[in-house]
Write a structure and sequence with these properties.
10 helices, Rossmann fold, alpha/beta, globular
Amino acid sequence: MAYKSLLTVAASPEGLLTTVTAAAQISQTMDAHLDALALGVDRTQIGYSYVGSGAVVIAAAMDRAEADARIAEAALNAAIGAQAPTLRSSVESVVTQLGTMTDVVAARARYSDLVILPLPYGKSRQVEDEALTEAALFEGMAPVLVIPPSGMKSAEPKRILLAWNQSREAMVATRRAMPFLRRAETVQIVVIDPPTHGPERSDPGGLLCQYLVRHGIRAEVSVLARTLPRVSEVLARHALDFDAGLLVMGAYGHSRFREAILGGATRDMLENAAIPVFLAH
């Protein structure tokens, strides 16, 4: 079991080498093909304009978007060129408006086993970075591997943390992460403050552990108390203590609007991730 078709998308050169290097390592480890998409995004949303000025504004915006696409494409080619010559890859460039970017990304993500992207939040990130991640997850229906600035230590993480809360999203993430899970030496299923009422109240994470063991995965369960204000903080601290190389979790158990306004485990993890995070919805 392996990923065979990988995708990475770049709207700017920021953090690109780290992301492409991780994607290239996974591609070569799993004998996959890496597709790279360079985006030039027209961010103007014209609500009104003076007579005759609209065409000028649109033309100028498209010129900027085309220039951005060329910069991103050049950066992708340079990053791929820095990898091993045996890497199978292709680079494509597209110019799109911000409102239609989701469709462009989703159309390619649907035919990929895994989408590899940089952290969508941070001082150097743009509004389209978050939209890229959500487009791949929701409309593209693909799992997303988010790479932090520190990169990915190994294409085959030996110690993996699996966040489990009995949700549909967590189960989907588990199934989609199987190529990583089966290559790991240890997979720790982490359950934080399990509910006192429910089908797994007597054995939190037990059925999932049994499922993974039957697939030949060395899995164990760790039940943690919520000793910090946020679930993401408990996960991050435990990942450090466990020396995890990858965190697997379901994405956006609440609506994206709620997470954007009130916060949530997904957004909190992505804002401060120190290790690669595997997401699926």
